[in-house]
Amino acid sequence: MPDPIVLNHDAATGITEYFHVLEDGKEWAVESRQDVSGLLEVNQELQKLDDGKWGDGRCVASIPVTVLEHLQRIGMIDGMYNVKNNTDFAKWLNKSENKRYRTKLGNV
Prior knowledge:
Elements: E1 5-10, E2 15-21, E3 28-34, H1 37-48, H2 65-73, H3 86-94
Antiparallel strand pairs: 1-2, 2-3
């Protein structure tokens, strides 16, 4: 399988799109990758500064665009990034593997 071809890189979002020719040579795929290291570092710092207060207007997470796109594909959010079911989204945010997207500690 040949190396992927870079189609586009957006420095502002850190998203790079790659074009892949699949093994049979007749099919192809486009892959999006996002460098989220800076965002995750900021989230971790915000967790350290968390005052423990909850309420309207408090930011509880900062989620990369590529993850939001995944959440759209699985039906958790709509095309405008609106949460479809608050309970399901809170469960997703509370999973340990998604803690890195959180800006506040505790359970949502």
